[in-house]
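Thought: the user asked what SDR family oxidoreductase looks like in 3D. I have the sequence; next I should run the structure tool and report back without guessing.
Action: structure_tool
Action Input:
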Amino acid sequence: MADLILTGASRGIGHALALALAARGERLVLVARDRTRLDSLVTRIERQGGHALAVPGDLSSLKGARRLGERLVEVAAPGATLVHNAGLWPSTRELTPEGLETAFVVNHLAPLVMQRSLLEAGRLRRVMGVSAGLIIKGRFDAARTPTGEDFSSLRTYCTTKLCFALALRDVAAAHPELDVVVLHPGVVRTDLGAREGPLGWLLSLVKRGWEAPEVCAARLARLLARERWSPAGEARWLVEEDERPWPAAAEDEATRRAVRDTTARLLG
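Observation:
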């Protein structure tokens, strides 16, 4: 039985995807911070005849991500699929214990740290990055983005998602044995980016017209059922279920080099 490791499984797209995959045959290794919600999800999946394991973990610090990766190595069998679904849309600038901007860690550095342990242990066969069409708005500044000195309640989300998309392209090139894909999942009604006050109220009204997480989850389940996503050594870009050219922001060589060099420096 193959393993499917799913981060951000306790709510939103991740929660809906776990339920959509419950009867498919993989063992679901479900990752999130909230142990209570994870345990409840495991119970629902097993009632539907599925197999699931809760692995609580925290991607809000590099130390926590490293610990999570080590735990996943202990439980995951070789040939696993990793779905990077966890993400953060910050409303204010906050720093991690390492002095880095939180979304830059949660959306970019920490998933790489967690994934590194799995790669080094030979556990992975496929990697899916649930990204965002808003990477087209990303603007990386090597001197300011990691610590959030260029923080914006919109741009920071776009930029950190762009950084991780570029990193997964590099992972695909370095590990041609992997099948890697990065995608925009759709415009989905979740609590990502929730705000307080008038702006939050307005956003909640707008979201009523967006698609339900269950619709997006069915789409991702279909993608996960595909035999192959990308050629060896590449990571293709999908918008929902359709392959598209990588956006210009992800093709800019100066940006790709800056993200690559900064990531390597911060992760040692």
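Thought: the tool returned a structure. Summarizing for the user.
Final Answer: Structure for SDR family oxidoreductase predicted. The beta strands are 3-7, 27-32, 51-56, 80-84, 124-130, 179-184, 235-239, 242-244. The longest strand covers residues 124-130.
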